[in-house]
Design a protein that fits this description.
Structural class: alpha/beta
Order of helices and strands: HEHEEHEHEHEH
Helix content: 25-40%
Number of strands: 6
Shape: globular
Oligomer: single chain
Radius of gyration: 17 Å
Number of helices: 6
Distance between the termini: 46 Å
Largest sheet: 3 strands, antiparallel
Strand content: 15-25%
């Protein structure tokens, strides 16, 4: 289905991405991910149930990237994999990294980074997966993490 809603309208404003409405066979570019959005938890739940029951579901990863967004990604592609690849490319020890996040799509990042920090207004799953919790993302969380790192709160 390709119904536009407020969540996706806002997403498009921020990302400047168009609403692609066509058969997926007509897409000529490599698809990096498919994003579904809804203000309704029930609708996201129905989408998740339908997609994960599909015979090809084992070939993909599925993740909630915020309360209103549900994503299909190529298997093994996520923020955790990105940190590993970036560290290899930059010749940085992954144990010397800090990941800050707020939702389920950040958990893989917490698992591979030297330190995983959730903002205080993160979802429960992210809070549970993090090594530390900092101020909310509305309270300059990254600045707070940098300050705390400089003052010895985090040992990496």
């Amino acid at each position: 289905f390709c119904r536009e809603n407020k969540t996706m309208e806002n997403f498009r404003k921020v990302t400047n991405l168009e609403n692609l409405v066509c058969d997926y066979n007509d897409v000529k570019e490599t698809i990096a991910k498919i994003l579904f959005g809804s203000e309704s938890d029930e609708e996201i739940g129905r989408i998740e149930k339908m997609l994960t029951a599909h015979p090809l579901a084992k070939e993909f990863d599925f993740i909630r990237s915020e309360k209103t967004l549900y994503e299909i990604l190529p298997q093994g592609i996520g923020k955790g994999t990105s940190i590993i690849n970036l560290c290899k490319h930059l010749n940085i020890d992954v144990n010397k990294t800090i990941a800050v996040g707020d939702y389920n799509n950040d958990i893989s990042m917490f698992k591979v980074a030297g330190i995983g920090i959730a903002v205080s207004n993160a979802c429960k799953e992210a809070l549970d997966a993090a090594d530390y919790i900092t101020v909310s993302n509305e309270e300059h969380a990254i600045a707070c993490v940098i300050y705390d790192l400089a003052n010895g709160k985090y040992k990496i």
